[in-house]
Design a protein that fits this description.
It is a single chain. The protein has a single domain, classed as Luciferase-like domain (TIM Barrel), CATH 3.20.20.30. Helix content is 43%, strand content 16%. It has eleven helices and eleven strands. A hairpin with a 5-residue loop joins strand 5 and strand 6.
Length: 359
């Protein structure tokens, strides 16, 4: 099992605040020095949830200049919002800055308001088709194939993006949720997988990874692809102590996304007809009940939250269903000294997990 760090803070907008990116930059250097394999930065617009990273290429450029070995990944570029030419140009710069360490997670998007950026809001309704079209064009541009277009003077031109990247092929991850067809599609197209446990159980994820690997094999791709799983992470000495330490920060964190989507509520197993609940009509009491239940689900079944033993057991379970990397989401609201203490213990889990995985 490999380990990476995933950054997705819920950060309220406060003008003039300093050192907002200190934890990202310093933990990235630490991960680079301690054998972690990847750093992940998201794309998020108009909202505090993930709002420190409206463009992952900007974060990635900073990380490229302060690290030496670790792979630097988008998690993920929302392709329907952007021209693939710009994506290829920006990430080729980062590939050069990092001497060939770029990995590119790409997604089709799910937040309607984000699509004001695209210039064509109709792309939201057909975002999956647009995503596939732009993913293919991005790969061609990365390889140096010319893109044919008509300029403002009516002249047909063929352009190639510069600078040319270090890597001849861009390592590509598709961000997928719970749709088995998306898993199969990624396998057929030879893309790696970036996924999570929001709205799906570990057992269902295992079934979908099997679908992905079958599609990968059927398409004749070498190897078997990489499955990266995002998990909220904090390693402590005792399960009960960790439970109490992370409970309120995690609930606040999950609450920050409630007005984006009802996905947290729909995934709670303890509420009747959870998928039919109108988020806007929730009372404060029901919100707290929902977040409490959601936290308990994450803590017990869908995270690396707990003691060394609990986290090592979780790693083994995820490895058994085909996960290759745990992308550890560390910035969910704990104070920085606490995060750092958890990182040191996470590194122990990382070291101990390797021989366990080979046993």
């Amino acid at each position: 099992m490999d380990f990476g760090l995933f950054y997705f803070a819920n950060h309220d907008a406060r003008d003039g605040e300093r050192e907002r990116y200190r934890l990202i930059l310093e933990s990235a250097r630490w991960a680079d020095e301690n054998g972690f394999v990847r750093l992940w930065a998201p794309e998020r617009h108009f909202h505090s949830f993930g709002g420190l990273s409206p463009n992952p290429s900007v974060i990635a450029a900073a990380l490229a200049s302060t690290t030496r070995r670790i792979q630097i990944c988008a998690g993920s570029v929302v392709l329907p919002l952007h021209d693939p030419i710009r994506v290829a140009e920006e990430w080729s710069v980062i590939d050069n800055l990092s001497n060939g360490r770029v990995g590119l997670g790409v997604a089709c998007g799910w937040v309607p308001n984000d699509f004001v950026i695209s210039g064509n809001q109709g792309d939201f309704d057909r975002r999956r088709e647009v995503f596939l079209e732009k993913a293919e064009r991005l790969q061609r541009l990365w390889r140096g194939e010319p893109y044919h277009a008509i300029n403002p003077h009516g002249k047909e031109i063929a352009v190639q993006t510069v600078p040319r990247p270090i890597q001849s092929e861009v390592p590509l991850w598709f961000t997928v949720a719970a749709n088995p067809e998306s898993f199969a599609q990624a396998g057929t197209l030879g893309a790696h997988l970036l996924t999570h446990l929001l709205g799906q159980t570990q057992e269902r994820l295992g079934e979908r990874i099997a679908v992905y690997r079958e599609a990968w094999k059927a398409a004749g791709h070498p190897g078997q692809g990489i499955v990266s799983l995002m998990l909220h992470t904090y390693v402590g000495e005792d399960d009960d102590e960790v439970h109490e330490l992370v409970r309120e920060p995690m609930k606040r964190y999950l609450g920050g996304s409630l007005n984006l989507a009802a996905a947290h509520i729909a995934s709670v197993p303890f509420l009747k007809d959870a998928d039919k609940i109108d988020v806007g009509a929730l009372t404060p009491e029901l919100v707290d009940q929902t977040l409490e239940a959601s936290f308990e689900k994450y803590f017990h079944t869908a995270s690396l939250l707990g003691s060394y033993e609990k986290c090592l057991d979780a790693v083994e379970r995820f490895r058994a269903i085909g996960v290759d990397e745990v992308a550890c989401l560390i910035d969910f609201g704990l104070d920085e000294p606490t995060v750092w203490a958890g990182l040191e213990r996470l590194n122990v889990v990382r070291v101990l997990a390797r021989p366990r995985a080979r046993a």
